[in-house]
Amino acid sequence: MSRLTAELEDALAEREAAGLGRRRHAVETRRGARLTVDGRDVLHFGSNDYLGLAADPRVIKAAQEGAARHGVGAGASHLISGHFSAHEALERELADWIAPCRDPRALLFSTGYMANLAIVTALCGRGDAVFGDRLNHACLNDAALLSRAVFIRYRHGELDELRRRLRDSRARRKLICTDAVFSMDGDIAPLPGLLELAEDHDAWLVVDDAHGLGVLGGNGDGRGTLAHFGLASERIVYMGTLGKAAGVAGAFVAAHRAVIDTLLQTARPYVFTTASPPLLACALQASLAIIRDEPQRRLRLFALIARFRDGAATLPWLVLPSETAIQPLIVGDNVGALRLTDALWQRGLWVPAIRPPTVPRGTARLRITLSTAHTDADVARLLAALTELAERA
Ligand SMILES: *Cc1c(COP(=O)(O)O)cnc(C)c1O
Fold first, then answer.
1. CATH superfamily ID and name for 23-45+295-392
2. What is the DSSP letter of 38?
3. Residue 178 · residue 143 · CB < 8 Å
4. Which of 263, 360, 365, 391 could form a disulfide with 267 if both were Cys (CB 3.0 to 4.6 A apart)?
């Protein structure tokens, strides 16, 4: 074995010994939250398909019709020849729906990861400063590093610290970025306070709404976290992902026309990649229509969340104070979290254990996510299993 390979083998063995090894499970079939995985039937509490749209027959049909009409692959990047009328129509719809400011436009990306890289690198560079919440998603951190701006991380939700850091910064351009709903904790960012700071310090505010879009909104409309707070501003650059509550894949940025034009002209993760299959844009139009027209899906979801939190209050593990579909159960050590996951798996329940570096050290957890695809009985079954395991622990 070469020295290089041996070094990798050693590092992998070390990860494994620290309870940090990661495994994949191959899903064979899916019926709502019921999956056949590695030959076993399990009830799943680990998906971001919060509204149960990923396998909705209407969304599937739209994808099929999209494939029949446009083919499967886009064949080129958007700026060469891969931009289809289906992309164009979806962008228009998203811009009007989210409307983060006056004169809004939207731009589709293949993934949320790429959208975040695009936003931060297009708006900031050397001599600028990016300010990010410590619990932001990894791709916002990667975006800040890639931009070559000074990267300043503030303690989770600490607006006073952020204010001080903004005031002390001599950077020419400033950009604040935040998860709107924190992906591993489920809590909602203090967006009104963040927008006020952005105004006071002439900064951009990048809002990553991967887990709010489709779930939160004004009057339960699913329009996401800006609508939840009733916010709009030219400073806001909104990023929504389309592979979570929307059930498909991809992401979009909605912002002022000048921001979107800048991304289209200069953002490397937009310019130098093949456009997403237009059939996905067709599927997404169907999925957005359901998000808008079926508020009962959100009512169901919030009823399940309340039911879960009620039942989980007596468990010995800390359940973080989250109003959203993400309901983390903090275990602490990596091995303990894995053991709990394994015990649930033995009982036919699939709940992923999340460990560092995805979450801070010492806060390994079960990231329980609820979905409209769950029934009351499903949640009761999860709570009964957790209660039984708590008594044994
Ligand atoms: C999932 C996620 C992303 C990445 O989106 P993808 O479309 O999966 O690449 C970005 N930000 C947050 C907060 C996320 O949870």
1. Aspartate Aminotransferase, domain 1 (3.90.1150.10)
2. T
3. no
4. 263
Which residue positions in the chain have pLDDT lower than 70?
A: 393
Instruction: Give CA–CA dist 92/81, Å, rounded.
Output: 19
CA distance to 82, 107, 121, 245, 280, per residue, from 250 (Å): 15, 11, 19, 12, 8
Whole-number Å distance, alpha carbon 170 to ligand 1 midpoint, is 31
How much distance in Å is there from the Cα of 241 to the middle of ligand 1? 6
End-to-end CA distance of the chain: 43
Could you give the residue range(s) of every CATH 3.90.1150.10 domain in the chain? Answer: 23-45+295-392
Distance CA 124, CA 140 (A): 13
Quick check: CB of 354 below 6 Å from ligand 1? no
Residue 208 CB less than 6 A away from ligand 1:
yes
From 66, 90, 44, select the one nearest 369 (Cα to Cα).
Answer: 44
State the closest ligand 1 atom to the C-alpha of 179, by its place in the atom list counted from 1: 13
Could you give the 3-state DSSP secondary structure of residue 148? coil
Ligand 1 atom with the shortest distance to the CA of 114:
9
Contact yes or no for 140/182 (Cβ under 8 A): no
The answer to whether 337 and 367 have CB atoms below 8 angstroms apart is no
Q: Please state whether 157 falls in left (phi above 0), alpha (psi between -120 and 50) or beta.
A: left
Is residue 364 within 8 Å of residue 353, measured between CB atoms?
Answer: yes
Which DSSP string corresponds to 151-194? EEEE-TT-HHHHHHHHHH---SSEEEEEESB-TTT-PBP-HHHH
CB distance 352 to ligand 1 below 6 Å: no
pLDDT, position 18:
85
CATH of region 57-293: 3.40.640.10
Q: So what's the pLDDT on residue 75?
A: 97
Residue pair 254/98 in contact by the 8 Å Cβ criterion: yes
Residue 70 CA neighbour count, 13 Å, CB half: 25
- pLDDT of 219 reads 86
Per-residue model confidence as pLDDT tens digits over 17-32: 988 888 899 999 998 8
What residues does CATH 3.40.640.10 cover in the chain?
Answer: 57-293
Looking at residue 21, its pLDDT comes to 84
CB of 110 sitting under 6 A from ligand 1: no
**Could you tell me the distance, in angstroms and rounded to a whole number, from the CA of residue 362 to the centre of ligand 1?**
23
